[in-house]
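As noted in the main text, all predictions were made from sequence alone. Below is one such record, for Outer membrane protein assembly factor BamB.
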Amino acid sequence: MKRFLPVLILLVCSSVDAADSAPSITKEWPQWGGDGARNNTPVGVGIPTEWNVGDFDFRTGEWDSSTAENVKWAARLGSQTYGNCVIADGKAFIGTNNSGGWLERYPADVDLGCLLCFDIADGKFLWQHSSEKLKTGRVHDWPLQGICSASLVEGKRLWFVTSRGEVRCLDTEGFHDGENDGPKTDEAHTGENEADVIWVFDMMRELGVSQHNMCSCSVTAIGDTLLVNTSNGLDESHINLPSPNAPSFIALDKNTGEVLWTDKSPGDNILHGQWSSPTVAEIEMPDGSKQMQVIYGGGDGWVYAFDPLGDGEGGAKLLWKFDANPKQSVWILGGRGTRNNIIATPVVYKNRAYVAVGQDPEHGEGVGHLWCIDPTGSGDVSPELAFNAADPSTPIPPKRIQAVIPEEGDLARPNPNSKVIWHYSELDSDGDGEIDPYLETMHRSCGTVAIKDDILYIADFSGIFHCLDAMATGSPKVHWTYDMFAAAWGSPLIVDGKVYIGDEDGDVAIFNHSTDPNVAMTEDGGEMIPALGEINMGNSVYSTPIIADNVLYISNRTHLFAIEKKD
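Prediction:
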């Protein structure tokens, strides 16, 4: 039975009127989160809340559409799909592995990281970019994981990060335009179903990066500056950091791949891997000026904000940094500790930054934190500073395993420079004097928040879906929580007065967009369920639903579906 927890004093809240304005329909979704602010809230109308994905022949992967409802088309992917779909230039681009066997020169039993391109009109396969596995094996390029990043598309150009630790620029047309647009494509591989590569930047070779298991970053850009998290991390021992001096955050010229600036702030304190993606937004400062910021989640559990232009000398220009872990939290191998890194992507909404902490999903469930941060500060804006009794007036440097160790004379004090607006970890929402370990707790999360009408949604890895007041101050305000009883890897979609979220069981739950749990959900035989139900996609949904031109795109492990309400 699904569980939910309302906040009783908020039951009088009304549903949000989705028709209070009429912005333009979102025609494309050209990067993870739609734009640099990363908030998954496109504009659409008539978005389906009922569909059936049909049946599949699991031996061949062929789709049987005879029982499908409201499915425009389905495209075969690989056997494991973690990359999020983007829609631009009349095409759908998505990362997966090679189990689909689209190219003759790479049969399905050849393990690759693949970026696939389909025509959004009918789901026709157009081309594939193929990343052969690194010879170093799973320490750098985990088997069968494919491409886990989402692409950035502008015009006829596409940028993405391969599983091999490369940033690549492609022509969105592939070779369907009859042209080889870049010198990086082998002339023997210029068939119409091959990718047209314009430039390649190898972060392992050029910067000494050593990614852990997988290089995965969904890049973004401001002007001609491409912003990338390198995924620098530990080796197979999960203790040693092979490349402590390699950068974690970089900026490239998106036209040439030239390095503009680099930063290695997490340094020796990287906990595991670094798989977060950067966010870029214009922030209004207290003096009324505007400051462009690129915000990165670090593998040390800190959030870092930089000037996208760097310092002008090849280095980064740090604006502020924020420790997203309590100072006494502890990192323990295998996820048994309380200290986390950041996998989710920060989101900027109404001059606030939002980010949750988490760990590799293989580490299981654990305590988490969701932060709302004022991005107008400078320097260390963490909630606390760490000191040692030997010199209680001078902050001590960050430590990897535990920032404050009381047995060694360490102590934490409130930071007078803190820019925390609110922090959500545990909250006695129903006022019974006890904390429900599931419904009143924020757990580790891979997910990114989505916010509309000041209402924030986020799913955690314990399968709890949280609805909060995004514009609260001082302390969090939780409107309601709901137990999906399955881990959520992806992030919510808010569109057309509805909220969509997928889970590991393959269910997509659909709620009314509302602060009132009795509007967001409905009672069915004594059980509270999403107001618009749950629809199973046939197998696990690790991705995030998106919308473009009133079509809903959802990928499960093996297929990408274009879902559209039929007349």
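Confidence is low (pLDDT under 50) at residues 8-19. The longest helix spans residues 203-207. These features were considered when defining construct boundaries for the mutagenesis experiments described in Section 2.9.
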